[in-house]
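TICKET: design request
STATUS: open
ATTACHED STRUCTURE:
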């Protein structure tokens, strides 16, 4: 099955993963005919090189995968997947190489190396299977691969099939698969139950705005995940240029990543009391759209001046964060494709995050390095607080000047997150070009690092 390890079998082909600097010593230990074949075929153990070595009768004796140098591997991700994509169909079993801490990450890359979004175009999946090597937690890696696949599929699906109602269905399907309790507040009921900013942002769409919630687990620390579910963002009345709308199906990438993280937590039964909140809206244009200059009153009671209707993600998150804070969880995490400023700062690969907890930031950075899921801490810079205070209202949703856009957005959200422990991720959720195990399209960001760190983070 896709994204799962193969069962052990005697017919699995031995796979040797070889670093460039180790090739000569490896060849010296082989039979002369093997060494000659490898050299004649130009195998230099570079990343992305793969080679079958024939044995007696012409049948394959073994397979080789280039692993490059440490410097080469530092310039990319999932080096083994680069070779796996070039191997012929079959089942492989690791015979040598990958002895370090990178083994689990590289095995994850193998499981994901054949991912393709095929909802609208059929394809024949390649059966390049790997037997789970000794010393890894195969169930954990499979659960992470399934979660990453969920994130990618959700983000890649266009809004015609992933509007607020369909995002609700996806969240409910995941929750119910793990026995979680699901509830949704929809349309004008958002006003009746005091979620005015979620309602204001989504009311112009043909599909009603909603707040999706599910809970799982009844022991352990209280962990609340909040994901931005803007299923499409026209920019509202401050309409985006056409070129800037092309990727706006991914503006629910925060919600997708939160669901991916929740999937890992539930599948592997992490001992937490999990609560997931997703404000799901489409920021559209109609006669009842919220306007520049409007002042909205949030669930928390803070008033917000709307200086740009394209800064809507922080508005829907604010109401959800205020609800989450009322329960005082041990840890609250928000994820959102929130600002272009974050992309200017760190590019598409790195997930910037904000927290006031130095120990949590250090633990997350260590976890990110261990699982090759890069993150970078950004500052809640207090002197910028005045930039989000317009004077006419308590808060400004889009400060003038354009400086420090990711920081001011994070400071805005912190006003609603309460006094508890809070982490905010300003992610991109999109792979702009194809890389091994990461084809162009939707992608998980920061969730593997978070999952690695959560046992320590949630309990503090």
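STATUS: resolved
RESOLUTION: sequence designed for all positions
ATTACHED SEQUENCE:
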């Amino acid at each position: 099955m896709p994204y799962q390890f193969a069962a052990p079998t005697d017919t699995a082909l031995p796979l040797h993963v070889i670093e460039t600097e180790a090739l000569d010593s490896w060849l010296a230990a082989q039979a002369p005919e093997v060494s000659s074949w490898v050299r004649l075929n130009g195998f230099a153990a570079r990343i992305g090189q793969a080679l079958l070595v024939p044995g007696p009768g012409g049948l394959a004796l073994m397979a080789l995968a280039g692993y490059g140098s440490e410097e080469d591997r530092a310039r990319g991700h999932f080096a083994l997947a680069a070779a796996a994509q070039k191997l012929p169909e079959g089942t492989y079993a690791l015979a040598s190489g990958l002895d370090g801490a990178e083994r689990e990450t590289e095995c994850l890359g193998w499981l994901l190396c054949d991912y393709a979004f095929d909802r609208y175009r059929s394809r024949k999946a390649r059966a390049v299977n790997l037997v789970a090597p000794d010393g890894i937690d195969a169930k954990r890696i499979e659960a992470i691969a399934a979660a990453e696949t969920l994130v990618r599929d959700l983000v890649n699906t266009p809004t015609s099939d992933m509007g607020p109602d369909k995002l609700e269905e996806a969240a409910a399907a995941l929750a119910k698969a793990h026995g979680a309790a699901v509830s949704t507040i929809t349309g004008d009921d958002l006003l009746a139950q005091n979620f005015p900013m979620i309602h204001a942002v989504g009311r112009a769409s043909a599909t009603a705005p909603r707040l999706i919630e599910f809970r799982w687990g009844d022991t352990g620390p209280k962990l609340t995940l909040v994901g931005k579910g803007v299923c499409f963002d026209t920019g509202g009345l401050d309409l985006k240029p056409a070129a800037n709308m092309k990727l706006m199906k991914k503006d629910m990438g925060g919600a997708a990543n939160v669901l991916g993280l929740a999937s890992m937590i539930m599948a592997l039964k992490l001992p937490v009391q999990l609560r997931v909140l997703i404000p799901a809206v489409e920021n559209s244009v109609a006669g009842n759209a919220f306007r520049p200059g409007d002042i909205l009153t949030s669930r928390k009671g803070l008033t917000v001046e709307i200086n740009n209707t394209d800064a809507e993600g922080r508005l829907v998150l604010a109401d959800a964060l205020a609800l989450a804070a009322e329960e005082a969880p041990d840890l609250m995490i928000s994820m959102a494709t929130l600002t272009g400023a974050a992309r200017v700062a760190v590019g598409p690969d790195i997930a910037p995050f904000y927290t006031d907890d130095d120990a949590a930031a250090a633990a997350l950075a260590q976890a990110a390095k261990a699982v090759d899921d890069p993150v970078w801490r950004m500052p809640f810079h207090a002197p910028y607080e005045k930039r989000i205070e317009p004077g006419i209202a308590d808060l400004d949703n889009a400060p003038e000047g354009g400086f420090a856009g990711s920081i001011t957005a994070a400071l805005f959200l912190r006003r609603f997150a309460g006094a508890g422990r809070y982490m905010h991720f300003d992610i991109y959720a999109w792979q702009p070009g194809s890389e091994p195990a990461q084809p162009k399209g939707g992608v998980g960001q920061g969730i593997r690092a978070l999952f690695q760190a959560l046992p320590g983070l949630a309990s503090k």
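CLOSING REMARK: The chain has two domains: 13-132, 143-457. The chain has a mean pLDDT of 96.
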